Amino acid sequence: MEVENIQRRYRARTGIRRRAAREVEAVRGLSFEVERGELFGLLGPNGAGKTTTIKMLITLLLPSGGSARVLGHDVVREAREVRRHVGYVFGGDRGLYERLSGLDNLRYFAELYAVPAREQRQRIGELVELVGLQGRERERVEGYSRGMRQRLHIARGLLHRPEVLFLDEPSIGIDPVGARELRTTVARLVELGTTVLLTTHYMFEADELCDRIAVIAAGEIVAQGTPQELKRGVVEGRVVEVEVFGDAQSVLDDVRALAGVTSVSVEERGQAQLVVVRSDAGAEVTSSVLAALAGQRLGRVATREPTLEDAYVELVNRP
Amino acid sequence: MTSSVRIFFLGGLTSYRALFSWLSPWVLVPTFVLGPIFQILFFAYVGRSAGVGSDSFFLIGNAVQYASIPCLFAMGNTIDGERYSHTLGLLLVSPARRTPLFLGRALPVIVNGFVVSLFALVVGAVVLGVKLPLASLPLLAFVVAVSAFACTGLGLVTAALALRVRETATLSNLVFGMLLIFCGVNVPLSALPGWMAAVAGWLPLTHGIAAARELAAGAPFSAVARTVGAEAGVGAIYLVIGLVLLRFLEIESRRRATLELA
Q1: Which CATH superfamily is domain A2-225 in?
Q2: Where do the domains of chain A lie?
């Protein structure tokens, strides 16, 4: 997959009587390459342009500029060739025919993807087993749980044995066991030679699965590399986590101003707030952070190695 | 069977089952069984009390026109329903050829329109005591089928518009009313203003209703062959317009990002 300076703009309209249109740049010139058999992750906050990028690569949207080729086929000029060889799975519980059974959903998409009639039965059977829907496949989808729907989506996306699979937040809404099974399935597909482009908000998922990752913010790639490179390149130092009971927000600016501190974020943890302080390599900031937080009621204090999530938070929050 | 043939027959039937919500008996019986009978009786009794037309005139006009309910609404739902279930994007990124894909979706709709219309014609005739010549019944059925085909062509045009706008049911309601007024269903074309009669000539059902009335009056098929041909021709024109519009609006939707995927 070769993506070169791909862009997408669209017009957003507001108002009813006095309608005003403004141009929104959803994707601002992304460039990346994905090798055959590679699992490439696209990470970024909501609205960063991940899904728009995927929509262009699966031929649902035309790029406003730049170009992209999938398996050597241009996504604009050779859309039908691209469609034959790619699969697409998105997260959530929509996108299925509710009144049909899971089996009929799969049969219908098998027809759309021209899976030969003599192979359909066997292929659908394999996939039903793969995603663990055996015994429930003849029931109407309207009675399926969210996890079952998501598994049906995955089976649908694999019907025609796509060489490239686009997974747009596929584990959203799946329980932890289902998410783990999904990761195992994705890893197995990659082992079998499928190229996968994955978007996810779960950093451990990206860390565990992806060979390489591109982090997108506001329609642009802000970093690209292996999970290890991203962790090393962005957060070389240590991470200090302090549990604060009270108003941590009021002293955050003081913590940010400390020498050696590169970024600070706060996560709500029930009654406590977890202040996450990332620091430069070699900087020992624990004592100065605790001093800055003096006056607050503190809980657990811990230092740890930076994770992909730390790298991600820093990358997308850079000015 | 090639994949296009399978998409046409099997895909068309599956999408009809998947998308046409009226297949529930609670909706189907009142809409397709009682609805046309009520419409026929209403206009027949209005005609009787006003001393205009005949029961046969109103029976045939309304029975044939009622085919437009499934032909417009079910056809519109083939795209609108996809949009509602968030499957439209998945459909459009599939490599399936669009002509068999969408024409296949029209086939069950034509059959639906045909069955509803024929049922209304037979039951309406029994209720009103209209005697239709037995010999003309197969030909009447044929004309009803051609009319359902023509109306489905118009339905495909409204379905195509669902690629740009939501809620084509509103448009289908408007078109249903227009067909009721323009096509000589309850008012002879000769009694309509000239421009309305001229428009009617380019609408589905107009020629079908006229041919059905002549057949019911005992005319041989040779006398109505040209009229039936005109009905089929109008249907074919709308079908082609619908396919072209689908193609155009699909490309536009990719350009303008007017589709919702998830």
Answers
A1: P-loop containing nucleotide triphosphate hydrolases (3.40.50.300)
A2: 2-225, 235-317
H/E stretch holding A214 reads strand A212-217
Note which residues in 49-108 of chain B have CB less than 8 A from chain A.
85-87, 89-96, 101
* Chain B residue with the nearest C-alpha to that of A102: B18
Give the three-class secondary structure for A244. strand
Contacts of A114 in chain B (CB under 8 A): 3, 95-96
The label of the residue with tokens 């499957």 reads B87
The nearest CA of chain B is from the CA of A228 a distance in Å of 32
Q: Is the pLDDT of residue A236 over 70?
A: no
Q: What angle do CA A114, A115, A119 make, to 5 degrees?
A: 155
Whole-number Cα distances in Å, A33 to A196, A199, B257: 12, 15, 25
Domain boundaries, chain B: 3-256
Q: What is the pLDDT of residue A234?
A: 64
Class of domain A235-317: alpha beta
Alpha-carbon distances of B241 from B114, B155, B166, rounded to whole Å: 22, 11, 20
Residue B178 to residue B195: CA distance in whole angstroms? 14
In terms of Cα–Cα distance, which of A305, A293, A316 is closest to A246?
A293
Cα distance between residue B192 and residue A132, in whole Å: 64
Distance CA A54, CA A168 (A): 8
Cβ neighbours of A109 in B, within 8 Å:
90, 94
> In whole angstroms, what is the distance from residue B229 CA to residue B222 CA?
11
Q: Count CB-CB contacts under 10 A for residue B22.
A: 17
The reported pTM is 0.86
Closest CA to A237 of A196, A189, A285: A285
In chain B (262 residues long), the average pLDDT of successive 10-residue segments reads 88 90 79 94 96 95 97 92 90 95 96 96 96 92 98 96 87 96 96 96 98 95 97 98 96 84 36
The token duo for B64 is: 């044939």
What pLDDT, on the 0 to 100 scale, is given for residue B262? Answer: 34
Looking only at the bridges linking them, the beta strands covering A220-225 and A239-245 are: unpaired
